[in-house]
Design a protein that fits this description.
By secondary structure, the protein is mainly α. The protein is built from 26 helices and 2 strands. The protein has a two-stranded antiparallel ribbon with strand order 1-2.
Amino acid sequence: SQSPVLHGGCAGGAAHDDHGDGDRAEVPGQPAPLPRPHAPPHVGHRSVNLPYFTVAVLEALPMMIMETAIGQRFRGSPLHCLGRMHPLMWGIGACMCAVSALSAMYYVILLAWALVYFFNSFQTTLPWTVCNPGPEFDQCMIDPASYYFVHQMLHRAPSIEDSFQVVMHVYLAVLICWGVVFLCIRGGVASTAKVVYFSSLFPYVALTVFLVIGVQLPGAKEGLTFVFKPSFEKILQPATWMAATEQVFFSCVIGYGGMMSMASKMPVKNKGYIDTIIVICVNCGTSLYSAIGIFSLKGHIAYETYQSCRENAVAEPGCKQVNATLDDYIRDNSAGTGLIYITLAKAVATLGSQYVALSLSMLLFMMVVSIGLASQIGNLEGILPAAKDIPQFKILEKVGSSGVIGACILLFAVISVIFASNQGEFFVDLFDNYGCVLVLSFVGLMELIAIRVYGMRRFDRDFKIMNGRRVPMYIKLCVLYITPVILVVSIVWSFTQKFLDGTTFAYNDPAGVQRTLPWWAIVLSVALFLLGVAWAFIGIVVTRCCERKGVFLDWGEPDFNYELYVADMQPERYSRFEQLFFGVGEWDFPENLAKGPEPVPLDTISEKTESSGHTSPPPTPSPSDRGGSQPNETMLEASSNDKE
């Protein structure tokens, strides 16, 4: 039940590009191309690919293994897992729940946009391919797909300070999306797994169709060269690595809490680290697979426009200057929302006959809806288990699980109205930038600190019980040393750059002009950031104050007998290197060193004695003779009685 949701939660996508200049960071197609709303500027696509895979190995892999192991050991929501791990650490789990809630609020709008496009694909003529007569006819003729997305679908306001108006057809799609999400998750893990199996596997069918079609089109080679050929100049820029770090956290849902919640549903003794490696490999592999199909189509539409402009001497609408290259046309709308809702929407409309174009359009946006649905379920897995399981909220026991889910989704649906307005894109950027992007690095760093407080020796013991082996040496080095250094550098550099550039509280309007956020937007931005970070410190203060008054927060116990599993483990000696660098003792399970041979039933001893004719001590059974990795409770009780 875990793997498909994790895979769905990993669906990330391209970065947001406010002006369609393609100059924003993007990692092509994270398991599939659902756009990520925000990322730092001045980073091209080809420059992010190598840093992305490097950061995935140095950060994503160790942190995903860490989160999976924590969830598998402590069995609950992020709030409960971290609270059981250490009484002072439940605030970190609250931070993860806050990030998941903020992400779920605005992420649904990306799903709603795709739903609107999907329904419009049933028309005889795709509406983003034609321009209706009117005062804005000339503006529409420059790029009908862009005009439809900005003016007819979003009704985008010129700035965030314009009057607030709800776009009703978008908000109706938002409500439909929330209703579908509620129906998918109200039945628990069983119903969720069925939905996510489809929503995770169907995109591969669609991507395969687009790949087969795309690679045969003129311009496909140029499109693939654009996205895969590295730009070594930008690779050396710090902004590139910062963009890759942010994208890794987003695409692999690190710091959202969904990983812990889903891992807690696995059996105690299950090699979860292998599942994590599979998820990482599938994630990166699908990124490459989807990039081939998507950017071959992108290269084709750019090639057609480029050739048409050359033949007509830049006389047609949408043409660039005479000295513009093919790469300049590929770079247009090659990232963010423009990649899906402008470029690909326009590309599928030009393929084949009218009915072929309609079918491909339905396929494209059904794929995006499927990916968005799986991702939204992954987001909610970070917050809903906490809301359902907090013992202090007694009122939640009366309304039941469906009532809690319905109340949360109803609240999210009401808040989502701001994203379905003419200022929706501005609010999406605020929530994404200040409530998620800047917060995730802090949350990841605090998780690593929690491991240090808990102790690598205890974490290593837990890992061995669940996975049958100790934490790999490389993962230990990353968790204790390499990953924390990378995160600290990323945080310091990010805030320093924003301060020096004067972009801490700035945004770009649709015309590309940088403006300062109004005072109320600055207050909202600070509140979103504190909502995601402050809980870690609030948790420490609240716990200490309660302890002084003799009140202790009870986060419950995991749903298995930990001591029985410990008693069944065979001790192994640590190397001198591990003892020095990881702060562990000489043995991982020293309490089992003094344990004598397990008792053997008396009838077995009598039979052996009679057959041999003399008395000899019973042989010590090997680990393979003890019945597998599960502890033998009868033998453990017998051993305990012998000691008494």
